[in-house]
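Working notes for the structural subgroup meeting. M.R. asked for a predicted model of this chain before we commit to crystallization trials. I am recording the input and output together here so anyone reviewing the notebook later can reproduce the run.

Input as submitted:
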Amino acid sequence: MTRITETFARLKAEHRAGLVAYVMAGHPFPEATPAIVRALILGGADMIELGVPFSDPVADGPTIQAAGQVALGQGVLLPEVFSIAKSIRSFAAQAPVLAMTYVNPIFSMGYEDFSRAAVEAGLDGVIVPDLPAEESGDLLAAADAAGLSVVGLLAPTSIPDRLQKVCAASREMVYYVSRLGVTGARASLDDELVSNLSYLRAHLPLPFVVGFGISTPEQAARVAPHADGVVVGSALVDAVKDARTPLDAAELALQFISPLADAVRQSQGARP
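Returned structure, recorded in token form:
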């Protein structure tokens, strides 16, 4: 059983949703990322998304775009991301770690080489926002052979038409984009979110996590009863951007994640 499947089984047994924390690899500086991840796990994060810096991140809003540029400016490319992932895996034995990237870096490296390197680095899966299910066959074949889970994305506009197609192109879990547009903290969640999540719970055979725009404990608590996992990204990236040492970064990450983890754990959210 993989770390992803084990985590969702544990969450189901605990009758709750999980908390997924997004971190940009190499932001605000490369040495900070493992310290941030360690603090996030200590503070209650169940799963980690490790962002891969990219020059044209079409799904990301200003906060994550800026973080990626900072990391790129420090030379953080795929080999450095894999090195960071290895460092994380050295202390995070059980927590799933998934790369969130774009298809260009994967294609440039080669699907097979990327998938093998990702698994060797300790990554459990990959999320590729700009790779449609119809075009994912080559990556799926390479990832399946290497033991890397590909996670497909659903959006409000893809329910119900593309649900089965995206599910067929996903392994172990699906990522639901809670709103139209790019990543970024929002003051409120879209009105139709709960009804869409209810539809997914009734029709989607895989566990699903919900991201894009969730930034506060209150928002996390609203989503958690209707999903298998809640993703927080931009607000976390913003919370650690001014850290100057790994210790600073860890303290800022812990302060941010703990209230979110408490909110999610207190909301009964696991699939019955």
